[in-house]
Every structure is written in C-alpha cells, then in structure tokens.
Description:
Blueprint: E1 6-9, E2 12-15, E3 25-39, E4 46-49, H1 58-70, E5 75-79, E6 100-102, E7 108-110, H2 113-123, E8 127-133, H3 171-189, H4 191-194, E9 198-201, H5 217-234, E10 239-245, H6 250-262, E11 277-283, E12 287-289, E13 292-294, H7 297-312, E14 321-328, H8 346-366, E15 369-375, E16 393-394, E17 397-398, H9 400-410, E18 414-420, H10 426-432, E19 439-447, E20 450-458, E21 468-475, E22 482-491, H11 498-504, H12 513-523, E23 526-527, E24 532-536, E25 541-547, E26 552-558
Parallel strand pairs: 3-21, 4-5, 4-15, 5-8, 8-9, 9-10, 10-11, 11-14, 14-15
Antiparallel strand pairs: 1-2, 3-18, 6-7, 12-13, 16-17, 18-19, 19-20, 20-26, 21-25, 22-23, 22-24, 22-26
Helix pairs in contact: 3-5, 7-8, 7-10, 8-9, 11-12
Amino acid sequence: MRLPHRILLLGLATLTPTFGADESFPVAVTVDAGDISGPLRDFWRYYGGDEPNYATMKDGQKLLGQLGELAPGRSFIRLHNLLNTGDGTPAFKWGSTNAYTEDADGNPVYDWTGIDRIFDSGLERGVRPLVEIGFMPQALSSQPEPYRHEWRPGFDYSLIYTGWRMPPTDYAKWEELVYQWTKHCVERYGRAEVETWWWQVWNEANNQPNGYWGGTIEEFLKLNDYAIAGVRRALPTARVGGPHTAGSGGAFMEAFLDHALHGTNYATGETGTPLDFVAFHAKGSPRFVDDHVRMGIANQLRTIDRAFTTFGDYPELAGIPVIIGESDPEGCAACQGPQLAYRNGTMYSSYTAASFARKHDLADIHATNLEGAVTWAFTFENQPYFAGFRQLASNGLALPVLNVFRMFAHMGPERIAAKSDHQVPLDAILADGVRADPDVGVLASRNGHQIAVLVWHYHDDDMTGPEADVTINLTDLPLATRAWPVTHYRIDQDHSNAYAAWLRMGSPLAPTKEQYDALEAASALTPLGPATAVTVTDGAATLNFPLPRQGVSLIVIGENL
C-alpha cells in the first residue's frame, strides 16, 4: 500500500490523495555489457544551499560526511552568503561570516574565522568548495540599510532583497577583499588544494534589479572582473568562471560571454576575463493540480538544452567544463507549500534518477563537458521532522533522494548500452514532460567485471499507478559462464525511505531514541532482499522484478575482480 506524501504547513497536514493501482505492465530492458559508449559522467557529486552556517552544525556536518563518502575529495558544495556581515547565526535564506568590516577610519578589517569553520567542515569530510564570491559586506554596500532581511517561509519572497545584494561603493576594496580571502585560503590549505576548487562571483545576477543583484549588467561585469582579478592575483592558477545565471541566461549570458571572451576587462584593461568554466541554473516547475502534485521535468531539461545550445554557438568554449550551478525540481529550498509536497518521498528520488539520466544524454548530444550539476538541497537544522523543505536529510535522517546519489556512487566509470521499451524518448520529455505513459528508464555502467543497472519508474503526476514488471536481459557479460552475485538496492515505500517509516510510526513530533535509531536504519540505502546469484550462460543472464511507480532500483551484478 502506497503511503501519501505529506508536509507540515502552518500546523496543518497536506495530503496527496492515493488512487487505486491497476494490474502491472511488462517492461523489457536490454543491457549489452560489451558495448561501452564512453564514460559515465559523475556530475551528480555537487550540492549546495543558501544557509552556509548549517555546514558547521551537527546535522550539517553529519550530512557533509555522508556526501564526502560518496566521492571523497571529488564532491563539491556551493554556498550563498559567505561574505555577508553578521554574527554567524543561521536563518532561512541567510548566512553570515563577518569576513569584512571597517574601522572608524574606513580601513578594512578581515576576519576569516567564520569562513574557515565552513570550509573546514567540508574539507575534513571530503567535500571541497565551489566558492561563490558573495554577497556584499555591509561596510562595502552601496545601500547598507536595511541589510539583513527577516524573511521566513510564507512571507513575500521579495523581502529577502536588502542591502547585501548591492554593488560595492569601492571596487578596489572589493578586489582587495577577494585577493586577501584567496591568499588566506592558499596559506591555510595549500596551493595544490586550492587549485582544485572552483571560484565564481555572485548568484543569478541576471535577475536584476529586483533579484539577487541590485545593479546593472555593466556593474556586474565590473564586479566580476575585479573579483576574478583578486583571485588570480593571489593564485594565478585558480579555476575561475561563471556567471551562474537564473535559467539559461538569455541575453545576459551572451553579454557575459562576449565580455569575458572579447571585451575590455574593467580591472586590468586587458582583453577578456579568465573563464575556466561556464555556469547556469536549471529548475523544474511543479504545480498542485486536481489534488496532487504534478512535476515539471520538461521545464528543467529544456533550460539545460537551451544553455548547452548557447555554449555551442561559441567556438572558444569547445570542451570547457560546464556546471549547472543549481539543478532542481523547483526554485526555493526554504519555501513550503502544497505544490512542494513531493520532497520527502519517492517522487523526488524518482525525478532525480530520471532527470540526471537525461542531463547525461543532453551533454552527449551537445558534446558538452558537463562537470557538475549542483543539487541545491542541503539540510535545515533544528526544524520539525520532514517539514517539507527541499533537503537531502531531515534531523540527520537521509531522505529517499539522498539514496539516489548513493546509487550513483555504486555505478562504474564506463557507460554501457542499455534500452527500455518503456523509456520515454528525450524529445517527448522536452516537449511534454512525462504526462501520459510512465517513464521506466535505464542507465547502466561497467567497472571491470562489475555491472550496475539503474532502473526508475517515474511519472510527473504524484498518483498511484500500476507496477512495472521489469525483465532485464543482459548480454556480452565478462566471464561468460559462472554464477554471479547480485545485490538489488531499492527505493520505494518499504526500502531506503525514512519518511515512510516515520509515517508508519504515527508521525511522532519528537521521536524517542529507539524510534530515531529505527528511522536512521530506514534512511540507509537498503537491499530489496538478501544477496542472490544469477547464472550466466554464454555471457547472458536474465533478471525479473516488479518496480512500483516512483520506485528506483539499482542492480549490481558480479564483482570487480
């Protein structure tokens, strides 16, 4: 029996209704282990959040440790608000480090304690910074009052746009701030370490003047030039880029690229601005219709397609790393509402499996060097259990979506040919989403003698539907005849799902220690059952299993000898 998704909203429970399931339908999947199509891109190892100070707290550090374990030293986190003025107390859509203040005579005072705590929390756990240079310290802001906002979920979103988003009063001081910060990082962490980081300026500056950037496009280009000059003055080999537009960026992205490639640098007077990677954001658009959530996967994938097309129009960008700096089902992690009720349960996890596979396909189609896709979901400390925020964990308990990333981490470095007769074609998803037949898709990899097959059963509508009766036919397996071990991991209502376990407990507001331990066990990536074996004959084998709607399976076959 499928449990409803639920969020807590202003003290009320919002329920997504369930519908009767029909009989299962057959799905045929073929996997050719000998047909290696290229590398399986691991761009999933990027994460982010608005509230940087959560990274220093108990649940934030626990989550960082879990993320670091998935790709030690290769995982990255991007955080807003690193240069904000304040005492470091976290709040929704806010953070601060007090890195820059001025004395009574207007002289800079630098204090890296807050930023060091944030960066140390990640680096000690195998997660490196994708450094976002922002936002504007109060002493440099051209509109210093009001500075800190008092927004909270349910308030008008425009209330967040206060003095932290404004251009500096002195671009030379802005450059020196960034230079001193970069120099400090090199001294603290070592040149070789900092050379592995990515550096970029601001967030979604195309949403101006009534968004994250309170200046003009010309002022942003100047802001970017001075900041990048500061980074490169301290570390000439630093990896720098941008601009992290909201959406594909349109005319703003083109103006940024034209300036970076051919324009006159505001800070140096030279031609162009260093550009080691390019970045944009892509979001879906869920709605609440007919008493259920309907996702908008098409919107997110169309944005990615447009951005990749734009980059392809610039020959100078051939092969350059691309980072989708925020890549999510919708825009506001700290917001709540009925259209966001997908977050706690299997809708979010199946969406992630289906969308990340299509990002891989779009990168292949456009010959794009997709380095990272930042899942803008971290955690919100000291909030109610499963409160409906877009996060990877709640009160230290991994949500089902985090288990998709754990599945990705089990996959090998080589992509192998795999097809499903119920996988919705990419062109159809770009046009209409997944609104008719469900998307039962497959992504497969090889690592020596180990084969991993990811299968998802996704639909845009959060409604109960029939199970998929999946048959996987594997061919051209290495070691042609032998019994191979099989481990089948599953995310559904009964596996890898702390939220469903919490609902079955009666949704306790304050779980006991025994209940918490049970929820933590339920939050782990869980096998469907005991490990089994499959007999391989002449390089071929067959597996069969049911997969419920919005479920995700990872089948790991063989061993890496």
